[in-house]
Amino acid sequence: MQNQRRAPKITTLSWGRIATEAGVFRDAKLWPGGGRNWDWTETGTDHDVGLQPADIQEVLDHGARIIVVGRGQHERLSVPRGAVSTAEHVGARMEVLPTKAAVERYNALAGQGELVGALIHTTC
After folding, report:
1. SS3 for 63?
2. What pTM was computed for the model?
3. Which of 9, 26, 25, 1 has the alpha carbon at shortest distance from 93?
């Protein structure tokens, strides 16, 4: 599906830093047309509690229909079923991967013009 609002490309990833066409962040929320820093304290996300539905909802609200989640470089961020259900409820899909693979997948989908968003955790 071609998209007028292109998802911002991720240009570099390192421990604790992700550079994108939308800015440079510690962790990132990205969507078609933009993105911002992903501040876990806003929704109560943490490694053990996991990704929160509100984080998914924000990316959906910006038009994403595929959400790529980077669980961290050591895959410490959990992704509970409730978060996945938030995307599925509106017909979107999630792809949950280790962060490096998530960045590659997100960039590939963005390059194809898909309505893709991402939640990328850059550290553990």
Report:
1. coil
2. 0.94
3. 1
